[in-house]
Structure formats: C-alpha cells, structure tokens
Design goal:
This protein is mainly β. It is elongated and about 80 Å long.
Length: 193
C-alpha cells in the first residue's frame, strides 16, 4: 500500500437468493484514535461472483481520497446491509503506508549546471550494493562517490567537483552513473566555473 493508492475490499460470501445485499459501509481510523473515523463511506456492491447459477460473493471496493501520512498505521472495518438493515461491524483490519520507494530511480542532480557542488539523489526499493561514479565526456571514471551496501530508501550524496586525487576538475559535461545488481542508470550534468 502506498500513500497514493489505498484500495479496501469488503465482501459477503455464500449469499442465498432470499437475502439481498443492498450495500456496504466502510469506516477508517488512524491507529490510536478510534473515537472519530477519518472517513466513512456507504457503497453499492460493485461486483458479484456467481458459480453454478448461485451467488458466491458480493463485493465492494473503496479507495478513500485522503492524504495518508507515511509510516502511520490505519484501521478499517466494514459492514453489510441486508434486507434494509446493517449488520455488525467487522473486526478492524490494519494497514501501514509504505514510505519506501517502490522502484529504483536516479534523479537529476541539483543544481544543474553547478559550481562547486551538486546533490545527487536516488531511490532504492530494497537494500542494495550501490556504486555511484562520475565519468567525463571521454568515458573515463573521474571519481567513485560511493561503493557500498545501502539500505532501502531515498538517498542523497554531494559531489564537490573533485576527482579521486582531490583535485578540482575543469568546466564541462560530466555523467553520473548509479549501478546495483539489478539496476543501472546514467544522467548528464554540467560544471560551470
């Protein structure tokens, strides 16, 4: 579950033909605050699963339009309306918004053009052995910024415009390349003096 996509699903199994499911109701709480729901929604069933001519499941899905904060726990429950009356609320189900990135990414450095330093940001969805290196326009390695194992998450490193020997490099176009076991990406940057 990420902060931009939360989908909750409730269903009733083995509904016999004599009973009609008229709708579902959902409620959502932030963990630690069960006195006041963050959101409440009543929904019509949005799918019915049939098997051998009889209803097996009646389902409803809800995607609450809330700005969820990362690393917080949330609780939700649902209840169903049958023959005009709501049943009991289900047990609370919990979920946590994942603040970790879902994909590898190497972002454009900032500032660009730069002098004398620039920030290089990248994202790792899993712990990875990472190499971030600076390369000149001839394809020669100028400096290895980092070469080690890093935890999953968003990372930021600064290049100070110096080579491996600590000397300032000249103005020009440079490339920075991020490599892991399963990802490689190169971007261009400009150093202006």
């Amino acid at each position: 579950i990420s902060s931009d996509e939360v989908i909750l699903t409730a269903y009733v199994e083995a509904v016999d033909a004599a009973r009609q499911v008229a709708g579902f109701e959902f409620r959502l709480f932030e963990s630690g605050n069960l006195d006041q729901p963050m959101a409440l929604s009543g929904l019509m069933p949005d799918s019915i699963v049939m098997e051998n001519g009889s209803v097996q499941k009646v389902m409803a899905t809800w995607s609450p339009e809330i700005n969820f904060s990362a690393d917080n726990e949330f609780l939700w429950s649902s209840r169903v309306m049958v023959n005009g009356q709501f049943g009991q609320w289900s047990n609370n189900h919990s979920f946590k918004i994942n603040s970790l990135p879902s994909v590898f990414d190497l972002q454009q450095n900032f500032p660009n053009p730069f002098n004398p330093t620039t920030e290089i940001r990248f994202s790792l969805p899993i712990e990875s052995d990472v190499t971030l290196e600076i390369i000149n326009i001839l394809g020669e390695r100028i400096k290895i910024i980092i070469s080690e194992s890093l935890s999953a998450g968003n990372h930021s490193l600064v290049w100070d415009g110096r080579d491996e020997a600590g000397r300032s490099v000249g103005s020009g176009v440079y490339f920075y390349r991020l490599r892991t076991d399963s990802f490689e990406k190169t971007r261009k940057m400009v150093l202006l003096k």
